[in-house]
Amino acid sequence: MSKEAILVIEDEKNIAELVKYNLEQGGFRVLTAGDGETGLDRARKEKPILVVLDLMLPKIDGIEICKILKQDDKTAAIPIIMLTAKGQEADKVVGLELGADDYMTKPFSPRELVARVKAVLRRTNEKPKYKVLKVGSLELEAEKHIVTLKGKAIELTSKEYDLLKALWEARGRVLSRDFLLNQVWGYDESLNIETRTVDMHIGQLRKKLKSEEHRIITVKNAGYRFDDEL
Ligand code: CA
After folding, report:
1. CATH of 132-226, one of 1.10.390.10, 1.10.3660.10, 3.90.1150.10, 1.10.10.10
2. Distance in Å, CA 108 to ligand 1 centroid
3. Distance from Cα 20 to the centre of ligand 1, integer Å
4. C-alpha of residue 13 to centroid of ligand 1, in Å
């Protein structure tokens, strides 16, 4: 079967071994990590097809790892199944909110875990690969080239769309007018095109974003940034 590996981050050796054995029986290659730091490192380097993540871990806990992996574009698509102990219900909810795909409460049946792993992989393979950005009541579907506000499509010109996408994808970083001109209009900075063009389009874009217009923030003497905090 697949040569790509599943990463098991679990500090309890006997559980890690049991999970590894069962996943291997299920046809998967398995990598393990016994603490959070090693786990995070391996997840970044080895790009596993799925991570089985224990919540209580030495060095960096499971919630933190989940958060870091899901916030990084390079690892955000890796599905995560969390292992929680009884009494960690609150953490479980946080994990799912952070983007974990499933969870199992200890003690669990290793065979059921294998079944869950297969189900999650099936689900994620069926999911469209393109990105959907979401914040507040705003959504941007890159593949379809559409932006919706409260579920209704907003009519944006292609420049307004590109502008919004560039700002959004920068995840809160400030982008200068020159950078945006270059990125959206494809102008060479040396051409000295009016940076006011950017301001005009930003103004139009803000109007169309209505209740979400506050997300586009003017940063004095620097440019613009998109506020993607909830
Ligand atoms: Ca543990």
Report:
1. 1.10.10.10
2. 14
3. 15
4. 9
User: Residues 83-121: pLDDT tens digits?
Assistant: 988 777 777 778 788 889 999 998 899 999 999 999 999
CA dist 204 and 216 (Å) reads: 11
State the distance from the centre of ligand 1 to the C-alpha of 119, rounded, in angstroms.
24
The answer to whether 142 and 48 are in contact (CB under 8 A) is no
Low-confidence spans in the chain with pLDDT less than 50 = 1-2
Whole-angstrom Cα distance, residue 187 to residue 56? Answer: 51
Distance CA 84, CA 209 (A): 40
CA of 33 to the centre of ligand 1 (A): 11
Task: Report the top-level CATH class of 5-125.
Answer: alpha beta
